């Protein structure tokens, strides 16, 4: 590692920096190659290791270019600003990992900036799976339980759900995948508005290199069928939370056996978690956790 670089001991990987800035990995590399902004040190394995100052420089360059400034001018402004700043002083250590309690507190108090810091810092220091498993899912469950117990309001629950949803959507958008990759269609069954779990799967599968098409909440049955027939995806993964969810999946399997015979159907969500839920012939239960669900879907998608 380059010991001359300020705060070289707090290196972030390029994928984490992409998550923090909303820029693609390709753009970050291109800006370094063309404009030298930023120019992070490398690890002994030649991986770029970014500091907080590097992330700030990329954010500043992004901001200037979005305001209409040519990239070359934006880069020279960023370089000048960095030279006149004492980089040592603006590079605080990453510090300890944010906790789910801190994240929940920030959401319950509508503190978006702090919620963003928790999300960004946890993601930068870990990976997508850990962020979802240790922060996002437990926070939503905790807030949901409080709402159920009457100690959190609908406003707090909506704010929290919308915060998580918008961060997931941003992650999905910045991570595009080749059209040649196996395709997974994801949707909520008719009447089901609980989309965050399946949205998390959409992002997770994209990060694994699958091509995902995400339809969102409460998709009408006929639409679900028509879109599957049009796309002929490798897998259709559906989330259901209603008592009618198993019947809906059975009907989907019956229709698609004729019109999309190579598409595999995977299902999950609260509507299937009652132990008395019957096995649905022709479809696969994806399990109760995100990682397990992603594994089941990925395996099914790569079979064809
Ligand atoms: C946010 C939320 C909402 C939001 C959803 C917003 C949105 N954009 O998604 C809104 C406000 C719309 C909502 C509405 C309702 N909700 Co609500 N909601 C929640 C809450 C707080 C969080 C859900 C969530 O996103 N969790 C995070 C995700 C990641 O976790 P998950 O959904 O549990 O998913 C896990 C697994 O199912 C699996 N998984 C998820 N998706 C998939 C997909 C596949 C294919 C597979 C294999 C696996 C899988 O992985 C996940 C991680 O382990 C929960 C509280 C809780 N404790 O879960 C209640 C909760 C789910 N809601 C509940 C209820 C009762 C309702 C309403 C009926 C309330 C009402 N009276 O109107 C309506 C129903 C609307 C409908 N018809 O769908 C109950 C469900 C109880 C039950 N089992 O019947 C809960 C548990 C709250 C509670 N404690 O009572 N809700």
Tell me what you see in this structure:
This protein is an alpha/beta fold. The chain folds into 3 domains: 8-84, Multidrug-efflux Transporter Regulator, Chain: A, Domain 2 (Orthogonal Bundle), CATH 1.10.1660.10; 100-173, Methionine synthase domain (Methyltransferase, Methionine Synthase (B12-binding Domains), Chain A, domain 1, Orthogonal Bundle), CATH 1.10.1240.10; 183-303, Cobalamin-binding domain (Rossmann fold, 3-Layer(aba) Sandwich), CATH 3.40.50.280. The chain is 54% helix and 8% strand. The chain contains 12 helices and 5 strands. It has helices at residues 14-21, 25-35, 52-66, 71-84, 100-108, 112-125, 128-149, 154-173, 196-207, 221-231, 245-259, 290-303; strands spanning 183-188, 211-214, 235-239, 264-268, 283-285. It has a 5-stranded parallel beta sheet with strand order 2-1-3-4-5, with helices on both faces. Helix 9 links the parallel strand 1 (183-188) and strand 2. Helix 1 (14-21) packs antiparallel against helix 6 (112-125), helix 3 runs antiparallel to helix 4 (71-84) and helix 7 (128-149) runs antiparallel to helix 9 (196-207). The longest helix has 22 residues, at 128-149. The model is unreliable at 1-9 and 86-94 (pLDDT under 50). The chain binds cobalamin. Cobalamin is lined by residues 137, 140-141, 143-145, 147-148, 157, 161, 165, 191-198, 200-201, 237, 239, 241, 266-270, 286-290, 293.
């Amino acid at each position: 590692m380059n010991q001359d670089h300020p705060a070289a001991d707090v290196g972030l990987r390029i994928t984490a920096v992409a998550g923090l800035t909303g820029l693609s990995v390709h753009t970050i590399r291109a800006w370094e190659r063309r404009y030298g902004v930023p120019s992070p040190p490398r690890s002994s394995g030649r991986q770029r290791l970014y500091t907080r100052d590097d992330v700030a420089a990329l954010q500043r360059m992004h901001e200037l270019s979005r305001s209409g400034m040519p990239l070359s001018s934006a880069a020279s402004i960023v370089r000048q600003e960095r030279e006149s700043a004492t980089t040592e002083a603006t590079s605080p250590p990453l510090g300890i990992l944010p906790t789910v309690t801190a994240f929940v507190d920030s959401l319950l108090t509508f503190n978006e900036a702090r919620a963003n810091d928790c999300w960004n810092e946890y993601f930068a220091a870990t990976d997508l799976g850990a962020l979802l498993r240790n922060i996002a899912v437990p926070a939503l469950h905790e807030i949901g339980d409080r709402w159920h117990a009457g100690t959190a309001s609908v406003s707090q629950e909506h704010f929290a759900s919308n915060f998580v949803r918008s961060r997931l959507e941003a992650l999905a958008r910045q991570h595009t995948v080749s059209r040649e990759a196996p395709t997974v269609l994801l949707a909520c069954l008719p009447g089901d508005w609980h989309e965050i779990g399946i949205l998390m799967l959409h992002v997770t599968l994209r990060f694994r290199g699958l091509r995902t098409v995400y339809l969102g909440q409460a998709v009408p049955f006929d639409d679900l069928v028509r879109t599957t027939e049009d796309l002929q995806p490798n897998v259709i993964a559906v989330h259901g939370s209603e008592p009618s969810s198993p019947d809906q999946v059975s009907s989907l399997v019956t229709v698609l056996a004729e019109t999309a015979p190579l598409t595999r159907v995977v299902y999950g969500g609260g509507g299937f978690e009652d132990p008395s839920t019957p096995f649905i012939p022709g479809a696969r239960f994806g399990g109760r956790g995100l990682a397990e669900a992603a594994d089941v879907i990925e395996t099914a998608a790569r079979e064809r």
